[in-house]
Amino acid sequence: MIRRNPSGDLPQIHPSAFVDPTAILCGKVVVEENVFIGPYAVIRADETRPDGGMDAIVIGAHSNIQDGVVIHSKSGASVNIGAHTSIAHRSIVHGPCEVGARVFIGFNSVLFNCKVGEGCVVRHNSVVDGCDLPAGFYVPSTTYINARTDLGTIPKVTASATEFSEDVVRTNNELVAGYKRIQNEF
Fold first, then answer.
1. Does the N-terminal or the C-terminal CB of the chain have fewer CB atoms within 10 Å?
2. Which domain of life is it from (predicted)?
3. Active-site residue among 47, 98, 163, 185?
């Protein structure tokens, strides 16, 4: 479902993107080219700053927002998801938040008030809260990271983790083409 927010903003969706009919996109949302948005995802840009304005939630080109993901933002702050990035099933991205290009966010992970640098991998059931995670870090499953976390204890991304991330993006880019081909059948 594509709908306006109370401020009157309507999502802008590139014609090459695929948005599952069960997903909800509301308000000042920008979906760039060849993006896959899966079943029951919710991307909602409807809260405003005290001055009445709001920044957009932007989903970068060739990225995928998988089943049940929620992306929202507090008080009109921006959320930017970089190109070729995967946000896996049931994750929550709550702004203000910036996720770099070629990032993988694993199942059930939570990002809030943070920056996740290019090429990072945040594995399943992890939390990144209130901090900047520089490019190329690997966050193991069930890890909690905040501003007090010693990044020296966090490993760097391995070649196999990068290959996995790239394969997820490739697979979801193929789904865009497949679902676009049959979208008028349902």
1. C
2. Bacteria
3. 47
